[in-house]
Amino acid sequence: MAKSILVTGGAGYIGSHTVLQLLLCGFKVVVIDNLDNSSEIALHRVKKLAAQFSTNLSFHQVDLRDKSALEMVFSSTKFDAVIHFAGLKAVGESVQKPLLYYNNNIIGTVNLLEVMSAHGCKTLVFSSSATVYGWPKEVPCTEEFPLSAANPYGRTKLFIEEICRDVQNSDSEWKIILLRYFNPVGAHPSGHIGEDPRGVPNNLMPYVQQVAVGRRPHLTVYGTDYNTKDGTGVRDYIHVVDLADGHIAALQKLFDSNIACEVYNLGTGKGTSVLEMVAAFEKASGKEIPLEMAGRRPGDAEVVYASTEKAERELNWKAKFGIDEMCRDQWNWASKNPYGYGSPDNED
Ligand code: NAD
Ligand code: UFG
Description:
The protein is an alpha/beta fold. The chain contains 11 helices and 13 strands.
């Protein structure tokens, strides 16, 4: 019997790619999403890409804070596990609107855990972030590093990790994997699904992509005086399809072993500077990305990359793609969908 997986936030960037990989692996998938930062078109395209598996996908437009709607979803299907992506993720917005972030991310998660518990579904994969390492004193970041938060968004990740540990401590039937993502970029190689942020992108590659298609005049490079190879910030970029596959590996681990609450980094273990990433994108796209050098962005760390040993050893998962493939697929998506899932009329 195919296992049923509930995916919260499954219409979003990482969620939609993970839903596709789940379907292709033979899982039944129910997505809930309030479409606050996504489009149902992403799920229509996932269905097309999933071909004969498309009938294993269903969608409910539900907000996690609406507990009775959540109850209805759990009453209609018995889930083997939940992958919990749903949340708000813009660092700057979280500083401006902390209560929105605490309300959405934390209350949404507590509701989800309560309803899961009430329905006897106690197997969870949660989307955490490398942001919980704050400004790491050394690299690569191992899962044992001290944790800190530099902003309300990061604090929601830290709190939710702690909530998950407490819940599992209180009831050993729970099996939980916390996945700390490094910097997801790229798109499905088909170019039919990818990242489509609302408004001005906060993150590097969505911004670069919008410059390449002519929606923005130049990229502002935040900080050229870091102690790095070329002075710009260094991050661990990971192809979103590799990241999606990491979730399948985590599910297998949950189904096959007696896990309690474990944390794994999902990264490549390689650090790439802003200028290296821009050069790789220029090569992949044949487009020049005009640059404007600027001061550091407040709150940014200098160098962040993952230790990948624990995930390799225990999840049997390792990223396959490098930055050239990430940029190739990002450009394929961007050139086919210069306005994402929307039209120029929706442009701000
Ligand atoms: P995304 O915004 O594309 O996807 C999140 C989805 O959750 C969206 O479709 C949104 O509509 C939905 N959502 C938000 N609040 C909801 C609610 N209350 N009820 C129902 N649906 C809700 O973001 P993403 O990049 O796909 O990120 C997925 C998860 O991974 C998030 O939890 C994010 O914090 C985490 N993460 C992302 C990154 C990154 O750089 N993209 C890095 C580390 C961690
Ligand atoms: N950068 C620019 N110009 C831009 C955007 C980014 O130069 O317009 C630089 C940043 O200064 C940084 C690098 O590109 O050096 C990467 O920046 P991102 O915003 O893409 O990624 P961050 O590592 O700063 O943060 C992101 C998310 C966090 C998350 C973290 C790890 O925003 O929430 O990845 O997953 F925690």
